[in-house]
Amino acid sequence: MSNFDINAKLNELPIDMRRRAIDRLEIARLRRSKRGIAKLMLFLALLGPGILVMIADNDAGGVITYAQSGSIFGIGFFIPLLVLMIPVAYMVQEMTVRMAAVTRRGHAEMIWRRYGSFWGAFSLADLLIANSLTLVTEFIGITFGLAVFGVPPVAAVAAGAAFITTITLTMRYHTWERASLIVAFINLIFIPLVLFAHPDWSLVASTFLTWHINGGFRPLFIYILLANLGTTIAPWMLFFQQSSEVDKGTVLEDLKSGRRDTLIGAVVMSVVAISIMVFAGTLVFNPGISANVTTAAYDLGNILSVVASKVGMLPVKLFAIGLVDAGLISAIALTASTSWAVGEAFRWPKSINLPFMEGRKFYIPGLVAVFIAAGIVLIPHLPLSFLNITVQVIASIFMPAALLFLLLLVNDKEIMGPHVNRRWENAAIIAIMIVLISMSGLYGISLVFPHILGV
Description:
By secondary structure, this protein is mainly α. The protein has a single domain (about 45-455), classed as Amino acid/polyamine transporter I. It is about 75% helix and about 0% strand. It contains 20 helices and no strands. Helix 5 packs across helix 16 (about 315-345) and helix 6 runs parallel beside helix 12 (about 220-230). The longest helix is centred in the N-terminal third of the chain and has 41 residues, at about 105-145.
């Protein structure tokens, strides 16, 4: 009987499957090892999609939104909200990990296969619109951040697009994930940045008891609230993490690790967001004018000018570095999310393990979206700060439809078997949907009938 030649068998597989199989064999080897270093290596190898999706969610648009929120409303309401969003974000994303491990299919592919082309096209259009708009905010952040160092907009946009394209096209999944995690690590620069503001931590702690809304409950508050919800849970996150877990090769044996990865990411996301909000809320917020302020009065340039006047340029430059990094890591994730969703919808090749020529149908949609977004940012006199926060609001408006598809799929016993949601999980997701729909409706009513809210 001839010996089994695993290398020969691997060489018979398509290149994307072969590369994924090699990565999975390494995971299996680490699981079998009893050495302590192997356990550490296994832990690190299984990290990835959860941390990436959560840190990428603190994108350039999110960073600007957190700074605007702190500047306009201080820390009275939004700090407790961001802590509350940890379990919300975790719960939503855990469902995508579970579905990926059970079905080995991406989110877009599951919707198209289960609900047909009409609803598949609806969900894809929902995603592509949201992704394209969000990509614009990433280039807003990249352009603004590099402008602090004297880089002109055209050069900033070109450098950002070139970096994203290089990361996307030159690496297979494993190295793409590791490189993306390194970029994501720089996002942590916002945490020590808060120390420049010398905040009153007792005041920060007291916000959990008061949940006070500075300036009162008015249309601007609802608008900022929707923006914060939209930057914490967004449609692209569902598509990105499920497809990323599939491309990584996540199986049921990895489910516990996938949940841990997602939880770590959710906590880091919240800590970074809170740091930004405390930083801006401490240095920029003026309670004497909070009732009359508008978002136009607090564009990012104004916010950083106030910061510079109080604590100097060093924290402004560190903030700018973090802003550029936030734009880059999120643009990388959004590009992949777009490509995965389109590839799954049209049954094209759909893996970052593919070389460009073999997977060009997969790569092109995401990169086209990048170049379009880069071009939009260069349009003269575009109201960038207003556009940024509006995109976050749009994401929150689109989210209920995305959550509905997720809820239907994860409760389908034919697909998920014993891994369907528990009742309390369904109740929680339905509650999140109701809040998002209610806030969107209330904001619409407040625009038409502003005096309903006493303004």
